[in-house]
Amino acid sequence: MCLIYITFTRKYLHGFFLTNVECFNGVLKGARFYPVTALVQLTFYCVMAYFNKRRDEIGATLGRGERYTKYALDKLSHWGKAAGGHNVTLVNHENGTFEVTAARGYHLRKRSNKQVVKLEAPRCTCMKWQCFGIPCSHVQAVCASVAIDHCQYIESYYRLSVYSQCYATNFQPIPHEDYWPNARVPHTLLPDPSRKRVKRGRPQTRRLRTEMDWRGNQKQPRHMQQEKEWRENPTTLRCSKCKQDGHNMRTCSRRQQEQPPNGP
Ligand SMILES: [Zn+2]
Ligand SMILES: [Zn+2]
């Protein structure tokens, strides 16, 4: 039940956003291999406890006067350490384009020590801003050079007021089963026979059983029973060979005479 958010903000696909979203696998770890009712109950109470815990944490953080999540602030300060050494050059004032040169020189992994920041776009060629929604060191350097607050470029989902909305849902208590309202099922639910799985084990044989297959302890096949009945009460039989009553073609004496004695 891992949640993956893809953030579409300001008409740009900024990337996969996994940082601020919790993976519920850890929360529900104990809820495996239980009967269904116990499984649902455990899941419900685990999620409810988790929501309450998160709500308390967010409330305490808001009480300290913080506006953004710890994750966003940590990343901002981590990247901000490099911002002091950046050299900012204004390229276009109208659309807010800047060139930012890092003081550290050419970096093999980052390919270039020069990045282009477009505040209006909003983009930085290092891609961190687009990917995380948090201003990178280049954007922070640009903001410092033109004396604006870089916090305005943090995405709204890092704001504690927005973050707390995720856990705003109120859980309803589950009363005893005796107090539950009667479930109204409008239709009887029937399985689709075309989607039925083939049974496990040996498939049912389609072989037509004859006297050869019959053993004494088994029930006789239907046609053998019928033949036995006809033998005992032969009035209904009429031979197609000699047109006489009392036997059929297989037991016809005339047919047996016509066949060669050692024939097939
Ligand atoms: Zn950047
Ligand atoms: Zn006959």
TrEMBL record:
InterPro entries: Znf_PMZ (IPR006564), Znf_SWIM (IPR007527). GO terms for molecular function: zinc ion binding. The keyword Zinc applies. Residues 115-147 form the SWIM-type domain. Residues 190-264 are annotated as: Disordered. It comes from the Eukaryota. Keywords: Metal-binding, Zinc, Zinc-finger. Residues 196-207 have a biased composition (Basic residues). Pfam families: SWIM. The keyword Zinc applies. PANTHER family: MUDR FAMILY TRANSPOSASE, POLYPROTEIN, PUTATIVE-RELATED. This is SWIM-type domain-containing protein. The lineage of its organism: Eukaryota, Viridiplantae, Streptophyta, Embryophyta, Tracheophyta.
